[in-house]
Amino acid sequence: MAFIARTDLALVKKHLNITFDTDDELLRGYIKAAEAYLIAHTRDDLFCREDPDVDQAVLLLAAHYYANREATMVGATVATLPFGVREVILAHRSWWGVI
Question: N or C: which end of the chain has fewer CB within 10 A?
């Protein structure tokens, strides 16, 4: 079964203030990766319903992936996931099957 992204490319581009189309394929990959990351760290049914905080977490994580394309950075301060992503994961994580 093919993965269908829930988050719209146009919304991610607006979030990133991108007006060109050159990076569209790259952004689609970051959207898929962000959604897959959230699903892997929460519940499989996370994207079955409307949830604004999950949508925001996808935007933050896709933007983080876009801005930090390499696995290592020289001369930069190390940072964690963007504020909000960890909190969304914790709020939607299913502990021992209890939500």
Answer: N
26-75 confidence digits (pLDDT tens): 999 999 999 888 888 887 677 777 788 888 888 999 998 898 887 666 66
What's this model's pTM, rounded to 2 decimal places?
0.75
Q: Which two tokens stand for residue 96?
A: 């021992």
- Does any domain span residue 28? yes
Q: Considering its fold, how many domains does the chain have in total? A: 1
Tokens of 88: 């969304």
Residue 94 has pLDDT above 80, yes or no: no
- Is there a domain that residue 97 lies in? no
CA 69 to chain centre: 14
Please tell me the predicted confidence (pLDDT) of residue 98.
44
DSSP characters for 24-76?
HHHHHHHHHHHHHHHHHTS-TTGGGS--HHHHHHHHHHHHHHHH--SS--SSS
Burial class (CB in 10 A: 0-12, 13-18, 19+), 54: buried
